[in-house]
């Protein structure tokens, strides 16, 4: 009588097929690459004032609009309301038509006032509107 000490070995066919998983990964990769190329960040273009080596002459001086931290707006030495920025810039542009407009805003000033001042300058006919930080 013969006793079997070992059971016959059966082949193990329980391997996982990775092909569908790789297909899904490649499809997701292609999807993210395509959608990332169509994403566009919104914003607006800022014109920084150019550095001048010589002091400005009288005819090339800028129209400066200063926005303080507490919300006060100054054009030159005069304090003005946000609604009167446009008429003041129009008046100054009548005197100096080629003068650029520089909006100097304090770091703690509200962005709303900065945008309103820039819009008022554009509506007043200023083509060159720049932003500078007020110290």
TrEMBL record:
Subcellular location(s) of the protein: Cell membrane
Keyword vocabulary terms for this entry: Cell membrane, Membrane, Protein transport, Transmembrane, Transmembrane helix, Transport
MF terms in GO: transmembrane transporter activity
Top-level taxon of the source organism: Bacteria
GO biological process: protein transport
Chief subcellular location: membrane
Transmembrane segments: 20-39
CC annotations in GO: plasma membrane
Pfam families named in the record: ExbD
PANTHER family linked: BIOPOLYMER TRANSPORT PROTEIN EXBD2, EXBD MEMBRANE COMPONENT OF PMF-DRIVEN MACROMOLECULE IMPORT SYSTEM
Protein family according to the UniProt entry: Belongs to the ExbD/TolR family.
The name this protein goes by in its record: Biopolymer transport protein ExbD
